[in-house]
């Protein structure tokens, strides 16, 4: 058949399929395929006039903060699109030889192939040859994965039938008018399924040979090219390796027939063994790298964060679909070295099989970036012994909270919010009060801390009774001083300050009190509300950043499949406390951990050895809940904040005991020391004398 005749036939087919002479012209085409027009007319007419090509589903990759260490991937289809220049020429030749030898010559519909298929099918009385060009196969792949088509349209477009062939021809002709041959080949190589869960040539090269498509050998390229016909049955990993080898031989023969390859070279490739080097792309947080199971908790928190971001969709379902199809490259804030050090220290507090947990968070002030999240648990869905919900295995978010995890009582670490509220109201750090062993307040409560229906807390030890300023009361954790201070400023202002610094009320009871009973929530200053290590670390990081609160963030950057940055990754920060007020709070917070305030007003603390352990300016606080059911330690420098809590997540009333606090202080100091090992020593900025002492001029006696 001459080239001119082929072109004429192509034009005629195009005319038929475009419906230019619908009733008359469709008849010859229908007769060629042995069907009547009514068989395909209705669904065919419902299809759009041109092929809509949504972006192919691509996997998203989550990296550590170095931008290269893969934490895990997320995908519905394991695919990474690549340009044609990234695919070795022999792979390009092999796929054309295997699927459409005349790809470079036809216009989307191969007239020779159509006539040959018709002849064979008529002779055999069955559909044995389909005459699908590579362009038509591309069309079929697009239609099968286009989320915008209705189910009826998708069935009509992808069903195994002669009518479908006409539909594919219609679209193929349109595609060939819009795209170059190289563009079509590129799209085909990226959308085709190669078996073993690998979509596209890049994923297939990695899946079977652990290499990039640019590095494929002749034997490897022809093997992959042979798989697209029957990717499930010919898959040499999970299917029939012998069949895969036969298909490779077929592709080699076709390349020789087409003059793409000398016979001698094909013979050498034919006798090569498979030489598979399989590698499987991880999918989801339970597939973090071996030896790094602890990354799973950070990964889990990342997905929860992603689900809240409008930049990735209007609903949670849309955002998850975007993560698993959008081809994002995500550089997280996770620092593998700091994560490893944090996990090691956490497991020195409690082992992975201990019923008690020590969830810990490391936060960077001024950005909200979370460098590490660790807990002495295995991240996974494996079952636990009867009665053990969260140990040794769990996927519950013990560090950041969410779902069934509302948090743990943080004890006296919440005194920070009372101090900040007092400072903001105009009370200076020097504000003094004779703190008794027990104090009766105006706040109505029930339970063991009630005296005739009103809250009457007492100090942990009578040794701290007496006259105190905010410096000494915070350092020695004097309960009655902070109960008195709460009355001075108002409990509702204390609760509001905590919310300003990012404390989230996850339990229904806490949320109700915060909304409707904050004015009478005096005990709040002693940390009776459930919270998480991440909330506590970030609240103290706000003080470290001189009053700038930043939303906790698991990412440094997010780029979409086209390499465009996504704004959701940018820090979300705002000034929530006056810088001088924050400096004053930080100055007092140096007392509990054995450091000294800028005005040398500290007189002891509850974790005094931390400063000596770290060897640089540091601030922080310890906290114990009622009956030592939970323990909390938080410490910070201007560059970093670390918080750890001890609790039994399965039974919050199961007291961890006071002894845990000593190990926790050591752990926090070790994490800070390791994370800051390469950073310069940085001191806190002193507060003004007005905020410290309530004076505007030089203090008498200075």
From TrEMBL:
GO terms for molecular function: penicillin binding; peptidoglycan glycosyltransferase activity; serine-type D-Ala-D-Ala carboxypeptidase activity. Residues 70-255 form the Glycosyl transferase family domain. The keyword Hydrolase applies. GO terms for biological process: peptidoglycan biosynthetic process; proteolysis. It catalyses: Preferential cleavage: (Ac)2-L-Lys-D-Ala-|-D-Ala. Also transpeptidation of peptidyl-alanyl moieties that are N-acyl substituents of D-alanine; [GlcNAc-(1->4)-Mur2Ac(oyl-L-Ala-gamma-D-Glu-L-Lys-D-Ala-D-Ala)](n)-di-trans,octa-cis-undecaprenyl diphosphate + beta-D-GlcNAc-(1->4)-Mur2Ac(oyl-L-Ala-gamma-D-Glu-L-Lys-D-Ala-D-Ala)-di-trans,octa-cis-undecaprenyl diphosphate = [GlcNAc-(1->4)-Mur2Ac(oyl-L-Ala-gamma-D-Glu-L-Lys-D-Ala-D-Ala)](n+1)-di-trans,octa-cis-undecaprenyl diphosphate + di-trans,octa-cis-undecaprenyl diphosphate + H(+). InterPro entries: Beta-lactam/transpept-like, Glyco_trans_51, Glycosyltr_51/Transpeptidase, Lysozyme-like_dom_sf, PBP_transglycosylase, PCN-bd_Tpept. This is Penicillin-binding protein. It comes from the Bacteria. The lineage of its organism: Bacteria, Bacillati, Actinomycetota, Actinomycetes, Micromonosporales. Keywords: Carboxypeptidase, Glycosyltransferase, Hydrolase, Multifunctional enzyme, Protease, Transferase. Residues 362-653 form the Penicillin-binding protein transpeptidase domain. GO terms for cellular component: outer membrane-bounded periplasmic space. It comes from Micromonospora endolithica.
């Amino acid at each position: 058949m001459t080239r001119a005749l082929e072109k004429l036939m192509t034009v005629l087919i195009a005319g038929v399929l475009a419906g230019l002479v619908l009733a008359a012209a469709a008849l010859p085409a229908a007769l060629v395929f042995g069907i009547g027009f009514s068989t395909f007319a209705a669904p065919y007419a419902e299809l759009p006039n041109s092929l809509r090509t949504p972006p192919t589903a691509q996997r998203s990759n989550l990296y550590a903060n170095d931008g290269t260490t893969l934490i895990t991937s997320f995908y519905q289809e394991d695919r990474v699109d690549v340009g044609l220049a990234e695919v070795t020429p022999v792979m390009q030749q092999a796929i054309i030889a295997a699927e459409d030898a005349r790809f470079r010559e036809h216009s989307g519909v191969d007239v020779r192939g159509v006539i040959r298929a018709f002849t064979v099918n008529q002779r055999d009385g069955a559909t044995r040859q389909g005459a699908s060009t590579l362009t038509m196969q591309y069309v079929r792949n697009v239609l099968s994965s286009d989320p915008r088509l209705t189910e009826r349209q998708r069935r009509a477009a992808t069903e195994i039938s002669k009518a479908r062939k006409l539909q594919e021809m219609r679209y193929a002709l349109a595609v060939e008018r819009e795209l170059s041959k190289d563009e079509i080949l590129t799209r085909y190589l990226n959308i085709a399924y190669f078996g073993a869960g690998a979509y596209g040539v890049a994923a297939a090269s990695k899946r079977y040979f652990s290499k990039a498509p640019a590095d494929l050998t002749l034997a490897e390229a022809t093997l992959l090219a042979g798989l697209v016909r029957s990717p499930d049955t010919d898959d040499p990993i999970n299917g029939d390796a012998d069949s895969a080898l036969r298909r490779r031989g077929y592709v080699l023969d076709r390349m020789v027939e087409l003059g793409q390859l000398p016979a001698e070279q094909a013979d050498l490739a034919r006798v090569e063994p498979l030489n598979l080097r399989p590698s499987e792309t991880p999918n989801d947080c339970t597939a973090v790298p071996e030896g790094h199971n602890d990354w799973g908790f950070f990964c889990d928190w990342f997905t929860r964060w992603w689900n809240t971001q409008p930049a990735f969709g209007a609903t949670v379902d849309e955002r998850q679909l975007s993560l698993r199809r959008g081809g994002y490259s995500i550089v997280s804030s996770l620092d593998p070295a700091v994560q490893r050090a944090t996990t090691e220290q956490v497991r020195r507090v409690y082992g992975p099989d201990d019923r008690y947990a020590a969830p810990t968070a490391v936060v960077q002030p001024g950005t909200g970036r979370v460098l590490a999240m660790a807990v002495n648990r295995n991240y996974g869905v494996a079952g636990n012994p009867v009665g053990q919900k969260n140990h040794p295995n769990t996927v519950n978010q013990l560090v950041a909270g969410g779902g069934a995890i509302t948090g743990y009582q943080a004890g006296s670490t919440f005194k920070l919010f009372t101090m900040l509220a007092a400072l903001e109201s105009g009370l200076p750090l020097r504000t003094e009060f004779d703190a008794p062993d027990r104090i009766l307040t105006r706040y109505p409560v029930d339970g063991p801390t009630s005296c005739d229906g009103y809250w009457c807390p007492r100090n942990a030890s009578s040794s701290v009774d007496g006259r105190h300023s905010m410096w000494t009361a915070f350092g020695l954790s004097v309960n009655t001083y902070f109960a008195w201070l709460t009355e001075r400023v108002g409990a509702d202002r204390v609760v509001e300050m905590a919310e300003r610094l990012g404390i989230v009320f996850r339990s229904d009871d806490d949320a109700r009190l915060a909304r409707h009973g904050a004015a009478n929530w005096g005990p709040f200053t002693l940390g009776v509300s459930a919270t998480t290590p991440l909330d506590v670390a970030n609240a103290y990081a706000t003080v470290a950043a001189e009053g700038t609160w930043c939303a906790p963030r698991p990412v440094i950057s997010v780029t979409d499949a086209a390499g465009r940055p996504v704004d959701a990754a940018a820090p979300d920060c705002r000034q929530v406390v006056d810088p001088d007020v924050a400096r004053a709070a930080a100055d007092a917070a140096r007392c509990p951990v054995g450091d000294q305030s800028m005005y040398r007003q500290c007189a002891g603390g509850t974790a005094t050895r931390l400063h000596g352990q770290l060897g640089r300016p540091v601030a922080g606080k310890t906290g114990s809940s009622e009956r030592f059911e939970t323990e909390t330690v938080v410490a910070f420098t201007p560059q970093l904040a670390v918080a750890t809590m001890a609790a039994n997540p399965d039974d919050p009333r199961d007291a961890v005991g006071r002894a845990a606090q000593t190990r926790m202080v050591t752990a926090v100091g070790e994490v800070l020391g390791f994370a800051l090992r390469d950073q310069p020593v940085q001191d806190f900025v002193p507060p003004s004398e007005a905020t410290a002492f309530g004076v505007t001029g030089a203090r008498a006696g200075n």
